[in-house]
Design a protein that fits this description.
Blueprint lengths: L4 E2 L2 H23 L4 E7 L3 H16 L3 E7 L5 H13 L5 E4 L9 H7 L11 H9 L7 H14 L6 E5 L6 H10 L3 E5 L6 H6 L3 E4 L17 E4 L3 E4 L6 E4 L4 H5 L4 E2 L7 H20 L9
Parallel strand pairs: 1-11, 2-3, 2-4, 5-6, 5-7, 7-8, 8-11
Antiparallel strand pairs: 9-10
Helix pairs in contact: 1-10, 6-7, 6-10
Bound molecules: nicotinamide-adenine-dinucleotide (NAD).
Nicotinamide-adenine-dinucleotide binds next to α10.
Pfam family, one: THF_DHG_CYH
Organism: Novosphingobium clariflavum
Family: Belongs to the tetrahydrofolate dehydrogenase/cyclohydrolase family.
Length: 298
């Protein structure tokens, strides 16, 4: 029986945040100001509040300025759009993130389309989606970019490898597939209508699971030695009554017996998302200030 090596996303994210911190010091020395990230939260969704708080804390810890804007749930869409336009013009703000989901009376696409694409550090604006698809420099959604960083750190070149991405969301699955194409993988995108998913997954040297179904991918679906990136975050009942625990989209125990390497949940992909957001912000700061900066060293 093989035992997969564990891909430590928490440690990688710490290293990335430290490199971002060094770059932030350099940026401040050259420009006289800290790189700035503005985060806009509309409403009181508890999970979003936790994300926004963590983003703010980590932004400050990396030596950047954090601008938090909390708006009530009944804010008019026009007022949110006006705030986004203000942030677009604000020279202290290098990156803008509007926390999703927005309340139902707001049109998310319209809000995202109002963000200046060169400050769109979430990479959700259609201009950045198009840049990713055509290979132009832009901003790439944080979670899939974090997954590719972990894969390259583990495997080196991904060229020629067979990759299966399970899930086709705009936030994870689709950009993940684009990034893997850019790394010269042969990419299959599987989804809820895919026929015989285990057979499709069995071909893959790289499996990225971004589904939102607890422990769906079993060890016996995997090709021996495959590298498994588990994006899923699912809360399920724990062993003790009334307690819960987090699991991924991959059945970790059985996958460990077959995979070559695997990300755990928690501690795998999860910690990468905010670290990559900070990475995108420092990149935006240098690009928008017209400063030379080696982005590949991050
Ligand atoms: P989503 O609901 O938008 O998309 C899920 C995708 O899975 C869909 O494309 C659907 O076709 C596919 N799918 C559903 N059932 C399937 C099945 N039975 N077989 C094959 N495919 C199936 O979800 P998302 O936003 O892409 O997120 C996916 C998971 O990743 C969630 O658990 C989410 O919590 C997690 N996530 C984690 C992070 C992070 O680590 N920071 C970030 C984003 C999302």
């Amino acid at each position: 029986m093989t035992q997969a090596s564990i891909i430590d996303g928490k440690a990688f994210a710490e290293g990335l945040r430290a490199r971002v911190g060094t770059a932030a010091v350099g940026f401040e020395a050259r420009t006289g100001r800290k790189p700035g990230l503005a985060v806009v939260l509309v409403g009181e969704d508890p999970a979003s509040q936790v994300y926004v708080r963590n983003k703010g804390k980590q932004t400050v810890a990396a030596g950047m300025a954090s601008f938090e804007h909390k708006l009530p749930a009944d804010t008019a869409e026009a007022d949110l759009l006006a705030l986004v336009r203000e942030l677009n013009e604000d020279p202290r703000v290098d990156g803008i993130l509007v926390q999703l989901p927005l309340p139902p009376h707001m049109n998310e696409q319209k809000v995202i389309a109002t963000i200046n694409p060169d400050k769109d550090v979430d990479g959700f604006h259609v201009v950045n989606v198009g840049r990713l698809a055509t290979g132009l420099p832009g901003f790439v959604p944080c979670t899939p970019l974090g997954c590719v960083m972990l894969l390259k750190d583990k495997l080196g070149s991904l060229s020629g490898l067979d990759a299966v991405v399970i899930g086709r969301s705009n936030i994870v699955g689709k950009p993940m597939a684009q990034l893997l194409i850019a790394e010269s993988c042969t990419v299959t995108v599987a989804h809820s209508r895919t026929r015989d998913l285990p057979e499709v997954v069995r071909r893959a040297d790289i499996v990225v699971a971004a589904v939102g179904r607890p422990e769906m991918v079993k060890g016996d679906w995997l090709k021996p030695g495959a590298t498994v990136i588990d994006v899923g975050i699912n809360r399920v009942p724990g062993a003790e009554e009334g307690k819960t625990r987090l699991v991924g989209d991959v059945d970790f125990a059985s996958a460990c017996e077959v995979a070559g390497a695997i990300t755990p949940v928690p501690g795998g992909v999860g910690p990468m998302t905010i670290a990559v957001l900070l990475r995108n912000t420092i990149v935006a700061a240098h690009r928008n200030a017209g400063l030379d900066f080696d982005e590949s060293a991050l």
